[in-house]
């Protein structure tokens, strides 16, 4: 997916559909789609970062939230909780427990929803706090006189 450019295409597709107002969600979902498709976590991080950087710049979202958005999409629910994920940590126990990649699908989807929902909520809280203090894309913050 990385060599063909489809990883970057997926990331751009999410950002175009969700728009710059939902920059964080677009990055999270792009990372999730790539990770769930079997792309290595490190490849996802390097493939999505340029898109996230441009999108966060356009949306004036603090750039310090890019690693958190990538981590939420790539390193959390898709790697561990979604049913059918081809991650190695899910494939190794199959031989010992006699299960498939789709074991406990209802519980997996529920856990994934909780992880994604809480993570997006928390990133939204952090983004709103940053905007309240006048922080934009750059690392400089605006001091609010009281």
What does this structure look like?
This protein is mainly α and 146 residues long. It has seven helices and no strands. It has helices spanning 6-18, 23-36, 41-59, 66-75, 77-80, 88-97, 105-132.
* Helicity, as a percent range: 55-70%
- What is the H/E string? HHHHHHH
Shape: globular
Beta-strand segment tally: 0
Tally of separate helices: 7
Mean pLDDT: 82
How far apart the termini lie comes to 51 Å
Largest sheet: none
Structural class: mainly alpha
Ranges where pLDDT stays below 50 over 5 or more residues in a row are 141-146
Strand content: under 5%
Radius of gyration: 17 Å
Question: Can I get a quick summary?
Answer:
The protein has 146 residues and is mainly alpha-helical. The chain has helices spanning 6-18, 23-36, 41-59, 66-75, 77-80, 88-97, 105-132.
Question: Features of this protein?
Answer:
single chain, 146 residues, mainly alpha, globular, disordered C terminus
How are the SSEs placed, and which strands pair?
Layout: H1 6-18, H2 23-36, H3 41-59, H4 66-75, H5 77-80, H6 88-97, H7 105-132
């Amino acid at each position: 997916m990385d060599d063909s450019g489809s990883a970057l295409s997926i990331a751009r597709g999410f950002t175009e559909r969700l728009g710059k107002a939902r920059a964080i969600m677009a990055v999270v979902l792009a990372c999730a789609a790539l990770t769930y498709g079997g792309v290595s976590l490190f490849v996802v991080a390097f493939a999505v970062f340029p898109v996230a950087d441009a999108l966060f710049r356009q949306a004036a979202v603090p750039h310090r939230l890019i690693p958190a958005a990538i981590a939420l999409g790539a390193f959390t629910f898709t790697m561990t909780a979604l049913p059918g994920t081809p991650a190695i940590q899910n494939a190794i126990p199959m031989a010992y427990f006699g299960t498939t990649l789709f074991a406990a699908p209802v519980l997996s989807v529920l856990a994934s929803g909780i992880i994604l929902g809480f993570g997006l909520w928390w990133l939204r809280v952090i983004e709103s706090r940053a905007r309240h203090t006048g922080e934009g894309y750059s690392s400089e913050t605006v001091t609010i006189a009281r």
